[in-house]
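User: What would this chain look like folded?
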Amino acid sequence: MHGANPMSPSKSPSHFTLRTLRALRAKAVRWPEDFAATVPLMTLEGLVSEKMKSGDVYSSRRTKRPSPKVAFQLEYDAETPLYVALDSNELRRYAETLRRCWSLFGIAKGDRVGIFDYGTSPISYLASSTFTPYLERGAADILGCLPICNDGLANLSQRAVDIVKFVRPRVLFLRTDCLQPFTHEIGRGSLALSSWVETLVVVENEGVLPRAERDAYQAKLGVPIHRMMRADAAMFLAPECPRCGFFHVWSDLYHVEAPQERPGQKSGAQPSRLVITNWFATSRPAIRYLSHVNGVLQPAGCPAAAGAPRISA
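Assistant: Here's the prediction, encoded as structure tokens.
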């Protein structure tokens, strides 16, 4: 592993041990430049290639730990399915990540939360212990709120609108590809979304809705729209803060880099593909995963999450 070109996709870390992961975390925290220079990148395409070669749906991403409790197929390619696998502790930490996201959006005890996404999305399966085996407490269970899921395709937007009208969730999470048909249904019925929903959160795996498009939809729908980053292969979630407008990242859960930035280049000059290391994914590690999410690293400084690194996109 050491001495590899840091911009070259790596093979999957089938030889990782928990001791190796702890050592890598120490290096990332104390010597981040050395960490980036010596640990090769992992890509989604590389995971697919490894899966096709080995036949292992986890692309040989394993440590010597007991078998995980649950597995979820990634939203990538139905012909070459990839999976993430989680044990009880990973489920707990991942659900805590979602809980922090929800709290940043102001979701609290007694609130109703609408979710229009696939059941295999972490926004859905981490929401409640009733949705996922071995998940002791989902984000809703921790906060004491009620999640209502509409698991389906974008063409089920009329059903989503009907659910919203009757349930009246304080916050509605909406998959990006559902935003246009959902907006069409609202406009077709000359409905006022603000009568039922306070905030809309748009979520996309391996991407983020451009700010200009977000602003256009916000004007049409008449409610605040915030965005949320996802990279399911790295079990990564980052919410757009309503207060500072940047995406928050919690350093006890993730380490994020922008490796396209060169020495001497002004930080934040151009968005680049984010590289994500997940500290709680210990049974199927995600170390220096080169996502398809573009962003610019920003320093901490938001009162809503003191000390949390941030991303602009």
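The two ends are 31 Å apart (CA to CA). If you want, I can go into more detail on any region.
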